[in-house]
Design goal:
mainly beta; seven-stranded mixed beta sheet; six-stranded antiparallel beta sheet; 5 helices; disordered N terminus; disordered C terminus
């Protein structure tokens, strides 16, 4: 008995529909999009940015998240460009960190801060409120002659004084060539620990020197490691810290203190910095007393004072990025792979690959050193043409005018070389790269692999549970099940 005879209820039309559906499911694999970007084999252009500046970075946020011009949270189609030879990719100034702990001293008085000008008394010096960064409160102290001073004394540290740290973050705007400024932490009967800003002293390795010139400095030293200075009538023991004074011993100074403390038993930690030792081996140090900007390997290495839980914001965070093809949404890429046929008889396949890249234009972002680049991942003979079209907006790939394309194929003369296709990139500009290729089957197989090197490509990445291949198998299985049901009904009817 024929299949037609055994399916009386489905009829010729039903059977035809089922078979056509089976064919359609089975032919899905011929669709466009049969490669994976970023695997080292597929041509994957990217925009390199030497330095992206993020105006405000909450430390609990991903670095590639930023505030769009409409106030919403947006994400860059980019990855941070970290290399083995340049691991310290994140750069910022300690004076640009909006952290409550900078001005929390004294901690037992919620309505008092050492970074409020009205809390200071002066003798010759002037003290005013200022900021060293957005929201980063500071007191600016200016002296005009030797002996000018300012002091803060609305606090008392009465226990474990030698275990506590003296901590100062300061931006020295100007200091005379002979300038010496003494910062004294003084106890109840006049004994004091002294640190200094001194143009004739070396900061490195000298525990008592805060700074020796203009710029940004952070100083943190345990009081027990500093010399105790006595005065007439004092007992020579450092107990009950009751004042902090800033005095010009010689010359003049103009400086803003953005962090001050005398009662913590630990240091502010500004992250981990990688460096090479004398044997060219990489080692890690935690930055605690930066001079100038800080460069670290990971924002996650910032100490607990600067954690996202404390609502800390780092302003003007700088880092290099790549706006990559692999980070793009599916709507901004297209790849079609088909048989080469008689077009390229020496090859198995031909492909056309489109990638649309852009750099976001936003008030929160500053850009420096933008260039469109690509690594030549295939031998030169595989490239029929590589073209670039600028200012395409969201025009469909197939509708980009022929006159918009600039041919850059001539650059593709060496496999594994990196080519700069355009170094005049502007933020907000849409750029499309079109690569037309002739390929061997091995090329196609490599271009279908996931970046991790496992299976991949179109079939494994088209969706969950096997993607398109799962849909094909599922569809065929469904049709078989339908036919099976009809067969069972036919058998019962007989």
């Amino acid at each position: 008995m024929s299949l037609r005879e055994r399916l009386p209820s489905i009829g010729a039309r039903g059977l035809a529909i089922a078979l056509v559906t089976l064919v359609l499911f089975s032919s899905v694999g011929a669709a466009a999009g049969t490669v994976v970007f970023g695997n080292g084999a597929t041509p994957s252009p990217y925009i390199n940015e030497d330095q992206l500046t993020k105006a405000a970075h909450p430390t609990g946020q991903a670095v590639t998240t930023y505030e769009a011009n409409d106030g919403s949270q947006a994400s860059l189609d980019a990855i941070v460009n970290e290399t083995d030879s340049r691991p310290n990719v994140y750069t910022f100034s300690p004076a640009q960190i909006d952290a409550a702990d900078y001005g929390a001293f004294p901690h037992d008085k919620s309505d008092v801060s050492a970074l409020t000008a009205s809390e200071w008394t002066t003798s010759g010096a002037s003290v005013s409120d200022t900021e060293t960064g957005p929201g980063v409160e500071a007191v600016q102290i200016t002296t005009s002659a030797a002996g000018d001073s300012a002091s803060f004394s609305n606090f008392s540290v009465t226990s474990d004084e030698n275990k506590k740290f003296g901590q100062i973050g300061v931006v020295v705007h100007s200091i005379s060539s002979d300038g010496t400024v003494n910062v004294n932490f003084t106890d109840a009967d006049g004994d004091y620990k002294q640190a200094t800003i001194n143009t004739s002293q070396d900061v490195t390795g000298n525990a008592a020197v805060i700074a020796n010139g203009t710029g940004t400095y952070v100083w943190q030293e345990q009081f027990g490691q500093l010399t105790t200075n006595s005065v007439s009538g004092s007992d020579g023991t450092f107990n009950d810290i009751e004042s902090i004074s800033v005095t010009s011993a010689t010359g003049t100074v103009d400086a803003s203190i953005f962090a001050l403390n005398a009662e913590k038993t630990g240091e502010w930690q500004f992250g981990d910095h990688h460096y090479q030792n004398s044997d060219d081996e990489w080692e890690t140090e935690t930055v605690t007393e930066p001079i100038g900007d800080v460069s670290i390997a990971s924002m996650g290495s910032l100490g607990p004072t600067f954690s996202g839980d404390n609502n800390v914001t780092v302003h003007d965070l700088r880092f290099p990025v790549h706006y990559t093809s692999s980070a793009l949404p599916a709507s901004d890429t297209q790849a079609t792979v088909s048989d080469a046929g008689n077009t390229y008889p020496a090859y198995d396949k031909q492909a056309t690959i489109y990638t649309r890249l852009s750099v976001p234009e936003a008030y929160d972002l500053g850009h420096q050193g933008l260039s469109l680049r690509v690594n030549q991942s295939l031998p030169s003979d595989r490239y029929v043409s590589v073209e670039v079209a600028e200012g395409t907006s969201d025009t469909k790939f197939s509708e980009i005018s022929n006159t918009a394309w600039t041919d850059v194929t001539g650059q593709f003369s060496g496999e594994n070389e990196t080519h700069v296709l355009d170094d005049t990139i502007q933020p907000g500009q849409e750029i499309v790269v079109r690569s037309q290729l002739r390929l061997t089957q091995d090329d196609v197989t490599a271009m279908q692999q996931s970046p991790a090197g496992g299976g991949g490509g179109f079939f494994s990445n088209a969706g969950g549970n096997g993607g398109i291949w799962g849909a094909i198998v599922g569809g065929v299985g469904g049709i078989v099940a339908i036919i099976g049901n009809y067969l069972r009904k036919a058998r019962k009817a007989v």
